[in-house]
Amino acid sequence: MNVALKTPVLSGPRTVKRTLKAYISLTKPRVVELLLVVTAPTMLLAERGIPSLWLILATLVGGALSAGSAGAFNCYLDRDIDRLMKRTKNRPLVTGELSDREALIFAWALGAASILWLGLLTNWLAAALSFGAILLYVVFYTIILKRRTPQNIVWGGVAGCMPVLIGWAAVTGDLSWPPVILFMIIFLWTPPHYWPLSMKYRADYQAAGVPMLAVVRGRAQVGLQVILYAWATVACSLLLIPIADMGLLYTFVALVTGGWFIYETHRLYSLAIRHEHVSPMRVFHGSIAYLTLLFVAVGIDPLLPF
């Protein structure tokens, strides 16, 4: 979609505080925070205990730089449609807090720093996975998929799964089946997490010409897809029990929070097919709580004697 890019006019003086806040906003800090939430517990599981605190810190910093780079590239590449959507109207390239050139330099700098940081302070497998995560999000999702297919978030979500591989590789220097299962949990979780958000902002995506599933399908169809992916997510989370020899805590949390997550998706679908008022953000926020609790259990379970 070709949209003429008008140079935004910055309101008020550009202070150091405003500029710093704008650069932080480019990194999509809420996304970075969620990615780090899954990285640290994965490292505890890989160690079957508590790894070196320096290694944890180094991996989290490297992961934050990597995710921040991907987010900044995304803001740069999507600056045309961000100007058309109410949800993204306050991003720094829309408001004029930062120039396109500043954002692009910042994105490249963060990406290079993340690879060097992880390579020198953890290992080069983790660094290579970080590089792969940036490429997946920027090229595979943002450039290729996002504006072309309603399945964009399904396959584009692969980039968001990479932090568990990076965390595992930082501890062990290799990959095995447990991180693959963790990867698949996040992969299957991404659609029922993001599609409810696209339901709420359907008009935004439609105006920007982005074919999110909620734009090209009705609420009932979106609700059904959310249910199917939620069931698949919970089923995959249970696979971790035998494969990673998880204990009672993880088993309990996976069953209880998984059941609650599935219930919320069924509730969304039930309201949608009855053409009643739906609250898709309830599922969106609930999905974040579900994944957070699940990964907290992933990290604590190996520390317990049962």
Question: What report would you give on this structure?
Answer:
The chain is mainly α. The protein has two domains: 17-173, UbiA prenyltransferase (Tetracycline Repressor, domain 2, Orthogonal Bundle), CATH 1.10.357.140; 175-305, UbiA prenyltransferase (Four Helix Bundle (Hemerythrin (Met), subunit A), Up-down Bundle). 76% of the residues lie in helices and 0% in strands. The protein contains 15 helices and no strands. The chain is globular and about 60 Å long. The chain starts with 15 loop residues before the first helix and ends in a 6-residue tail after the last helix. The mean pLDDT is 92.
Tell me the layout of helices and strands:
Layout: H1 16-26, H2 29-47, H3 53-77, H4 79-82, H5 92-95, H6 100-121, H7 124-145, H8 152-156, H9 158-172, H10 177-200, H11 202-208, H12 213-216, H13 219-243, H14 248-273, H15 280-300
Helix pairs in contact: 2-3, 2-9, 2-15, 3-6, 3-7, 3-9, 6-7, 7-9, 9-10, 10-13, 10-15, 13-14, 14-15
InterPro entries: Protohaem_IX_farnesylTrfase, UbiA_prenyltransferase, UbiA_prenylTrfase_CS, UbiA_sf
GO cellular component, one term: plasma membrane
Transmembrane segments: 53-77, 98-118, 124-145, 152-171, 177-195, 222-241, 247-263, 283-300
